[in-house]
Sequence to fold (227 residues):
Amino acid sequence: MTKNAHVAALPIVAAVAAALAACAPMATAIPFQTMQRAESLPEHAQSIAIAAGAGVGGVGWPVGAMGGALQARFGIGHDRELSVSGQAIAHKCDGCAEGQRDTHIGIAGRLGVKWSFDRVALLVGTGLSGYPGGRAVGLDGAVIRDVGHGGYVSLRTGVADPIEQDSAAFADGKTVPVTGYVMGAAGWHGGAHDAFVIEGGMGLVQAGEHDSGAAFYGLVGVDLLKL
Fold:
């Protein structure tokens, strides 16, 4: 079966973004793209990042996907931010039941908090995702580390727990298990104000006790800042 995880959307930028796919059912992660450096926005400042991209991954064999994401960040003072992000991913569902294997659009959203320190930031978030066969609630945590002038690396781990599913959606009546992931990424953010963003990442996925796989993604976007 195919399933996706995350990422990006900007009509004016041709692209690369993130996606997960699989031959075994797995819950879609909440948005996990970074698209930012460690420093938090000043109090009352706002940022909207938009990106587009594609990826490949899977449990069993690789499947591709593409789509887009939007991330809004709000400075709340004391080196902290609130963020709201969303994504839409188009993907096939090879493991779905006959008649349901056309292209699906997976939707996910995330609400997060960020704490910044000296060139390092901690992020935590929660959200919802929808995919063929149901919906899941997600939790994640991440660390961002600035590298040089404009660069950054991040490490994120999270889990997606199904809260609604339809076993008739999948071949052989399979159900979607709790799905965990670890995702590492590296990127470049072109400046303190309006800037282009380039990011790529790879990670490991665990769907239930027995199914595991990997995913790779890339994205290109723009971050618009309002002070």
Summary: The first strand starts at residue 46 and ends at 58.
